[in-house]
Amino acid sequence: MGPCRRRRHLLTALSLVGVLTLSAGCGLFRDDPEQHETGPVSTVPGVPTGSSAHTLVADGQERGFRLYRPTNLAQSTPAPLVVMLHGALGTGSQAESSYGWNAQADRKGFVVAYPDGLSRSWAVSPECCGPPARDGVNDVAFIQKLVATVADQLPVDRTRIYATGISNGGMLAYRLACDTTLFAAIGPVAATQLGPCSSPAPISVIHVHGMADQTVPLNGGPGKRDNDGTGRNPVKIDGPPIPDLLARWRTTDGCGAPATTASGPVRTSVATCPEGRAVELATIDDAGHQWPGATGPRPEAQRLLDLDPPATALDATETIWRFFEAHPRTGG
CA-CA distances (angstroms) from residue 166 to 89, 151, 170, 208, 282? Predict the structure, then answer.
């Protein structure tokens, strides 16, 4: 192969790294915070229908997010709000285009927020993940400010505020459940819980995980991208086995014993809890580190970048929304 052809192959590979790793939801980090957003950017107030870009200041830093408001949403009726948290190397724009939440919002009548992590990652513990963890970014404060900002501009049903996310974003969903009482339910995908969580308030939880996930292993401990939390981009993923994690939340919620059902490669364990809450774990045989039901990368990108294709046996977006819809916040 001549030098020009090798250079073309290298450029193609680099472009795939820059674009298609976003489909994986987690993995590489970089210090470049460029977000590649499109459309007008506002500092709120005034939220148009459709998709729009906004900024706010949280913890002394300007932060960005996208907001999707269905055109058929009644202007005066309080609507649910879903906060969708991208994975490492992702952006709010990437999450909006990848996981089908806008279409679900159109069908079911809710608002979706897609926040941007600084340097394309989220701080969920002192050792994870990436520059935000290294620099002590307060991403919990950002998400709280985002929800308050949206709720000030739109009629949001305060009993139906939810957080979901993939990988590093799912880890932030767990951090929000540990550190706030803002959400009725969370829906982590291909994620785990890191850092202290000593006295969380009861909350409904649905967790979706691939049995063959090597980045966030179902059985806990470090995955293939773990660097023990060192260097400029710390990534220490040492969470508990996922079934044990869900058992902890069943204890927090005072749930009964879970009932397990299987449908093909999908196994679902559901526990009902007081005040209408529930804790659910859905696992998928042979599925890796991905958002089930999403549009996957091209086969050549999967081979080149060692990405896991999305599972087709489960639509994670529809499954999580169905759970959210059934579990508003109750009690105090």
Answer: 11, 24, 5, 9, 14
